[in-house]
Amino acid sequence: MLEALLNFEILRNTFYTGLIVGLLAPLLGTFIVVRRLSLISDGLSHVTLAGISFGLLMQKKYTLLMFTPFHTGILFSVIGAIVIENLRHVYKSFQEIAIPITLSVGVGLSVVFIALADGINTDIYAYLFGSVAAVSRTDLYVVLFTAIFVLIVIIFLYKELFALSFDEEFATVSGIRAKIIHYLFIIMTALVIAASIRIVGVLLVSALMTLPVATAMRIAKSFKQTLIFSIIYGEIAVILGLVTGYYFEIPPGGTIVITAALLLGLTLLVKKWYLAYIYRG
Questions:
Q1: Which of 65, 93, 155, 171 could form a disulfide with 176 if both were Cys (CB 3.0 to 4.6 A apart)?
Q2: 135-167 burial, b for 16+ CB within 10 Å, e for fewer?
Q3: Which domain holds residue 114?
């Protein structure tokens, strides 16, 4: 694996992108889980699939199209995020209905675009489950730019995001511009989901945003600890998943998620044994 990284640029791009995704997905996932919006990643991932399918269709019909399916996927994801936030304001008493509405539209559009593009091919398969060798240098730059943007926003608006995640009413009364920050947060989520799809795949990206967080919550004693442990677990899952996927020649999305699930199971067992030991002591 190390020799391949040194010799092949595309594998280096994939590895660097994986490290960035392993940081971003659990980082935003922590805020998402605390807000009880875990399913939003599923909704936006399916909207992103619609964008990717549209991009593949445009590439087939208009070969001179400047934008790749990855770029159209990002565009659709951001639009889907804005739609979800608007629907949450429309259905104030039933805000969770915004996610299945958007997810359903995303799935419907995906089916139509894939059918018009003459069905599932190797390209769409890589987007569904991730690929070890599908990340170009341009994709890496897009993911890196996304990471810089997300980290800057979180650093400068950490207190506001923290307050809105735990007590939105109090935060609003305190003078925090909740509406603007909500839109900014959900757009960041859309960008991270779209960026993660190259590595993890549409069908599995939500797992990378929730499993490391679920694992960290079992051992963390504060929100900041949850953030840190989530990132650590996310990076471990991505690195081991990419290495395993490379050697077994299978999509890395599955191996990354299985690794994250094994880390969760191991943490739960160790915590259970530790509590039993303390109780007996």
A1: 171
A2: bbeebbebbeebbeebeebbeebeebbbbbbee
A3: 2-280
